[in-house]
Amino acid sequence: MSNTAHTFAEERRAAILGMLEHSASVQVAELARAFGVSAVTARADLDSLEAAGKLRRTHGGAVSLQKALTVSIQDKRINLNVAAKQAIAQAAIGLVEDGDSIIVDSGTTALEFVRALTTRRDITVITADVTIANYIDDSLPQTDVILLGGTLRKGHRYLYGPLALRALEVLHADKAFLCPTSFVPNRGLMTNFEQMAQIKSAFIEAASASIALIDATKADAGGLMLFAPLNKIDVIVMDHDPQGILAQEIAEYAERGEQAPRLLVAS
Q1: How far is residue 173 from each of residues 39, 82, 102, 184, measured CA to CA in Å?
Q2: Judging by beta carbons within 10 Å of its beta carbon (0-12, 13-18, 19+), is residue 201 exposed, middle or buried?
Q3: Torsions phi, psi of 46, nearest 5?
Q4: What is the pLDDT of residue 60?
Q5: How many CB atoms lie within 10 A of CB 103?
Q6: Phi/psi of residue 42, each to 5°?
Q7: % helix / strand / coil in the chain, to the nearest 5?
């Protein structure tokens, strides 16, 4: 690399860090447009900054280490199981078509899924999650967002209650993408907060199809409130199915002649 090219690269990388001081995340396509460089060059800049410990790479971009996106208290795992969540997001994005209206649940897997929407156009996202709405506003100019009203659960950054439920009564989406706290065999998809169970159930009723995004750690894990048995779900997307827990229960539904979801394993 020539001295001039090296100087330009250092200036771009300093500018990227400056961008991350104002926004918790950046996207490769956004950087390529801003600096008039190729996506390959933009990725190389992000890779270099990650190697220097300045940011964390994500699929399609990077997030700040100093100004991390805030996610729900019950899911403080934005840096855990990242590869699994990204694999789930990439598999799930294949279920989204240009022009879709989609409901997106709360949580870090949902956030990874929304980051992958850069490959889709004319999408409308309906969500009760403030972090997801902020991210779309900052980083996805081609995507519209409808933020449900309601009561903000302090520290959790999502909305719930009668106002959110009333909004869902007049909305209809093509697909709902749900993020359970867990799957409990012989019960179904669970969460730990009663009002959030109500919202998740309403998401299902407000969409033509429902897709659950579950990383393997949530299979056969603890959960307090049931919001959906498996026959309410059309597709389950996982990074892998430990001990075939989901596959076995889906097979049992099918044997009884009941509706059962399709299992899509990302890896």
Answers
A1: 32, 28, 5, 27
A2: buried
A3: -65, -40
A4: 79
A5: 29
A6: -60, -40
A7: 45, 25, 30
Residue that the structure tokens 């996106």 belong to: 69
Calpha distance 207→246 (Å, rounded) = 23
Give the Cα separation of 59 and 90 in Å (integer).
9
Q: Which of 19, 7, 120 is nearest to 62 (CA)?
A: 19
Instruction: Report the mean per-residue pLDDT for the chain.
Output: 89
pLDDT tens, position by position, 31-54: 999 999 999 999 999 999 988 888
Residue ranges of the domains in the chain?
Answer: 3-64, 73-265
203, 174 Cβ separation under 8 angstroms: no
State the pLDDT at residue 58. 78
**Gap between the Cα atoms of 102 and 26, Å rounded:** 23
Q: How far apart are CA 31 and CA 3, in angstroms?
A: 22
Confidence of residue 6 (pLDDT cuts 50, 70, 90): low
Q: What is the pTM of this model?
A: 0.75
Sequence-ordered strand ranges (E) for 107-160: 124-127, 144-147, 151-152, 159-160
Kindly report the CATH class assigned to 3-64: mainly alpha
Query: Residue 71: pLDDT above 60?
Result: no
* Domain 73-265 CATH assignment equals 3.20.20.70: no
Question: Phi/psi zone of residue 213: left (φ > 0), alpha (ψ -120 to 50 degrees), beta?
Answer: beta
- The candidate with the shortest Cα–Cα distance to 201, out of 175, 226, 234, is 226
- Contacts of residue 90, defined as CB under 8 A and 6 or more positions apart, other chains included, come to 59, 116, 266
